[in-house]
Structures are given as structure tokens and as C-alpha cells.
Amino acid sequence: MPTYDEISIGDSASFTKTMSETDIYLFAGITGDLNPAHVDAVSAADGMFKQRIAHGMLSGSFISTVLAMKLPGPGTIYLGQELSFRGPVFIGDTITARVECTEKLEQRKWLKFKTTVTNQDGKLVVDGSATVIPPSA
Prior knowledge:
This protein is of the alpha+beta class and 137 residues long.
């Protein structure tokens, strides 16, 4: 796992996952967010997207996967995240969460990242930025 000094602006990493119905139900159960848009096919069919969608925060949570497991990696402390939800994620979509280092905050040895989630068509579904403390060793 790279430390602050080993990470350069422009370094990036990603994580890809195909969204399953099980993922959505497990997330709903863990969080208590049982919005029919996520868990009720009949109700969702009458909604904006005409089918169930994944929770926005579920899609966004894969950014944490990249930061915690790939770049900077294990030992990273998440300080903040800004998210904008740009499009729906449907059951069966393959999404890619990506982080790219955009700034090094020398005084505190913190890092800022551009964070995105795109679907299999390259469409941006989540956009944002994160601030982290990378592992020290």
C-alpha cells in the first residue's frame, strides 16, 4: 500500500461490479432503506425509471472500496465525501467506481481524490470528491 509520499497526482484505481438483486436487498436490509423504488418491482414499474433501481448510496459506497482496498489501500481513513447522483443504476448494470488523486495537502499529509462511478456504457452515474488520510507505513 502506498504512503502519502509514494502517491502522485494523477494516480488512479478502480473497482468493477455487476449490480445484483441480492446486493440491493442486502443493502436495503442493512440500512433500513426499503423505498419501493429499490425493493418493489410492481411499485417501481409506475415510477420515474419504470423498474427498480439500486440505492444511490450503494453505488457510491464502491468508492469506499477503491479507497480502502486499492488506492491508497488498507489503513486509509476516510475524512469526507461529496456525491452527486447523475443517473440510475439498474439490476444487471456493471458499474465501475474510480478514484484519481487530484491534490496533496502537504501540511496534514492528506489526499484529495476525484471520485466517479460509471455504468457499462460509460455513463456517469455518481460524481464527487473525497478527502482521505493515507496509511503512514
